[in-house]
Amino acid sequence: MTISLSKGQRIDLTKTNPGLKKAIIGLGWDINKYNTGGDYDLDASAFLLNNEGKARGIDDFIFYNNLQTANGSVKHTGDNRTGQGEGDDEQIVIDFSLLPQEVERIGITVTIDDAVRKNQNFGHVSNAFVRVVDEATNHEILRYDLGEEFSLETAIVVCELYRNQGEWKFQAIGSGFQGGLAALCQNYGLDAK
Asked: Where is the TerD domain (predicted)?
């Protein structure tokens, strides 16, 4: 049975699912019928963070141009440039057994590529969700539907996975940013230039 979460809620991942070794973080969305003169290209990313909530360097930023960590602990399955179709639009796979001890949190985000130039924002996006699936069993553990509360934001921290007493937990965040990917990078201690 899938657990549905609301903004701000937290749940154990590895403690209540003791066999969970690899998790698929599936993200999906639909685009409302707006004509802004360009296609919508939403991009999922993962930021591997230390205990201060900062990335140690650019290698801890997993996205369409850096599809995996050096040791394979976090992998992005590829860029979906249209968001067409049912189900997950993009996925990030996390192998908990390979995560370095210095990684205390993983921020999962979605941004709109070239949003300012195309006059696009998350007010144009509907049915956005994140779900966590056990890769071994294909069982959906949890789902968080983001709702329709965004307007001018061009980037969203969807959720964070975090280490607590040796176990991994999930927190539904749903926090929007203006400034796109650069704002997220700055938030997580990276220079986006």
From this structure: 1-188
Number of helices and strands in the chain (H, E): 2, 12
Distance between CA 54 and CA 165 in Å, rounded?
A: 20
Give the Cα-Cα-Cα angle 16, 92, 7 (nearest 5 degrees).
60
Q: What is the pLDDT along the chain (193 residues), one digit of tens a residue?
A: 788 999 999 999 999 998 899 999 999 988 876 767 677 888 999 999 999 999 999 999 999 999 999 999 999 998 665 555 678 899 999 999 999 999 999 999 999 988 888 888 898 888 899 999 999 999 999 999 998 778 889 999 999 999 999 999 999 999 999 988 999 999 999 986 5
Residue 130: helix, strand or coil by DSSP? strand
- Main-chain dihedrals φ then ψ at residue 47, nearest 5 degrees: -115, 120
Distances (CA, A) of 74 to 87, 101, 145, 149: 21, 14, 23, 29
Question: What CATH code is assigned to 3-188?
Answer: 2.60.60.30
Spatial neighbors of 98 by CB under 8 A, at least 6 apart, are 71, 72, 73
| pTM score, whole prediction | 0.93
In the chain, where the domains are located: 3-188
**Cα 89 to Cα 83: distance, rounded to the nearest angstrom:** 5
